[in-house]
User: Fold this.
Amino acid sequence: MELKTNLLDSGVDKQPTRGGAMRYRWSDAAAAPSLGFNLCHSGQQTTPATVPPPPAPSAATMEDNFDTILTKLGTGKWTMLYVLSMMYWYTMLPYHTIAAVFMAPPINHTCILPPHAIIPTLVLSPDDDRNTTANISYTSPPDQPHADDSCSYLIEDASTGRLEEQPCTEWDFDTSIFTSTVTSEFQLVCGRRFLRATYHSMYMFGMLAGAFFNGFLADKYGRWTLVAVSTIIYTVVALGSAWLPSLPWILVARFVLGMMHPTSLQTGYILVMEVTEVKMRTKVGMVQFITSTIATILFSGWAYLIRDWRWLQTAVSIPSLLFLPLLWLMGESPRWLAVVGQHDRALKELKRAAKWNKVTLPPDHDLLTIMHSVHQQAVSAKTNNEEISIMSRFIRAYDQFMILFRTPKLRIITLVIGIDYFVVAMLFFGLTSGASSLGVDPFMYLAIAGAAELPASTVLIPFAEYFGRKKMLAFSFLFCAAVLLAQPPIPDDLKWVSVTLVMLGKMSCTAAFFVLLLYALELFPTEIRNQGFGSAMASSRLGGAVAPFIMNALDVNYPWAVSLMFGAASLVAGVVVWPLWETKGITLPDTITELEGGDTVKASDKTANAW
Assistant:
């Protein structure tokens, strides 16, 4: 079967970049990272191409295909060094992606009244057991102002004798769960409450910004180089920002961490794929990001043991230092070295790989012949795509984005996939930080939320192969909507039922993400697949950035509205799938013309015709 008719042959969508090196795109839902920190796009145009499957590795008949060398190397210690090293690094990212859950949570607080303040009569809601200041009211004359003991107080005007409401400037925070948080230290309550949501969103905006340049830099300076630079910066900023005394600088640090997130994750993924033989890429992709889910569960344990946000961030960041020695053991991608013409370095790295994997490579002359051919192809591609300015790059990116709305079917795909990616990211981050709206233990809640991702990313994904992408995607969203909309009527004394329903929603929205990843890649034609996937990733970043502001606006006064709003959004995401068509077993369109032509041919039929 031709690779262009089934992207799952190798587990990745393999397309040449501007420099001629191969950029890998996730084409198998199981090979994609967890949504908590995953998902990035370089924002760079690539030229689609059909890549034939590699021939049998024979020294005498080797074609000019670098994959034949990797096939000869096989999978051994050298390969596993890269796979396990990057798997370890991926466990470091969730600690900061979802840091706001434990470092900037909503905290019960009471205004510290000045000596001249008037304390009104308190009337507590007798049927409320959530113990929050939102359920406190005051009795005062009907023509007098009312004060909220969490955000304001009353003083008597000396000249008129009337009461005046004054904003509170100091608060006493509840320390029964957390001894110190960003919320309490910088008093992010009342009029400054939006800064809690900003603390999380700055990371998301950083991820959006970082995705625009990491692909270009990885092609220009090398995969290992960019992984090394990004992971070192990430480690230093993660450790250093834990002790910054100023909130603005902490927010800047969060943005920088967000920028380094896709830079290290996507480039690391590319590096692993470029040192892995073809037949193992799907399997490697399936297990590579499982550690991120495990890290989510571990984070709840760290936070339970360490209740001070500065020490917690330090504790979860210190293990990042252990990754740095692994950089010294790892080397640059031999494929990238061959592409850019550094054949001596590539040959040296291949010989080291052969020694570690205990295999024998073909003679140096054969290897250099293949690398020379790869380099010549890269030079030819570069001649047709000269260096352009940053402004021209942005203009070209805008033009590429507008292509997605050129034709009717393409508009439908772009809008539906964009809506679904926005919703699935909003649901993921919103439900991950939903402990406050349910009034449950935040540590146990996150551990269960992390565990809910495991069946969604493993057991449920094969159903997309059996039932089809469209049905599975619609079912995942609609099931998520059903359980979330069923949660608000649950009484407070049955919190376990509420948590169960929300966790089922979390599991189904995670399954929706993985199915959506595969479905989107199959819907967009090859010639604009990167642009389409990039716009979808940008939409998911925005959804992740919006989620904390929704939680911030609703979880205190209207906790029931959180599940209601997320459920309604999931319902919309499931319904809008209807105009799309099934892609299971259908040849993927290579061009917009093929897409709009509406001709659907089974992949098996096309393969038979090819023979």
